[in-house]
Amino acid sequence: MELKEAIIKANQGNEITKIWTDSISSVMAVLDPHQLIRDIQSLLTQNRNILVRWIKAHAGYRGNEEADTLAKKAITEGVVMKSLNPRCELKQHLQELFLKQSQNLWNNVNAGRSVHKVLKTVNLKPVFWTREEILFVTGYGPFPSFLNRFHLSDSDLRRLAH
């Protein structure tokens, strides 16, 4: 039954879809003449981009273990599971979560405050800074205050300014 639902969902897209199941009986049942099996076979012949494959159960495959957990939860708690979104929507959702968590970390971490003053927002687009700009913004490099802080020089221009 779950195999049929997975095939119906996969049939809605145009991507090649591999459906991995740890139920060898589901894979073997595709040859069975019963109505459910004929329905599955019909769906599979309508879309050649769907492949049904077997995966060993309880072998530590993360996605399979999570699917088993969700299936058991649905059976015991009667939870109705929302159907999976297309890959592009999942990718966008994960990217948004990543950016939100990264921004939260960037706002609350103590390190990198000199860079934070210039780059307040986490972004996936690279910032093309020259070496000199990076050294200037971070305060690292051949500056008297930096050299003095790491005991690489006795001179500190900040002391001279006072």
UniProtKB/TrEMBL annotation:
Q: Which InterPro entries match?
A: RNaseH-like_sf, RNaseH_domain, RNaseH_sf
Q: Using the record's annotation, list all stretches that form the RNase H type-1 domain.
A: 1-76
| SUPFAM superfamilies cross-referenced by the UniProt entry | Ribonuclease H-like (SSF53098)
Query: Gene3D superfamilies recorded for this chain?
Result: Ribonuclease H-like superfamily/Ribonuclease H
- Record-given protein name: RNase H type-1 domain-containing protein
Q: What lineage does UniProt assign to this protein's organism?
A: Eukaryota, Metazoa, Ecdysozoa, Arthropoda, Chelicerata
Taxonomy, superkingdom: Eukaryota
GO MF term set: nucleic acid binding; RNA-DNA hybrid ribonuclease activity
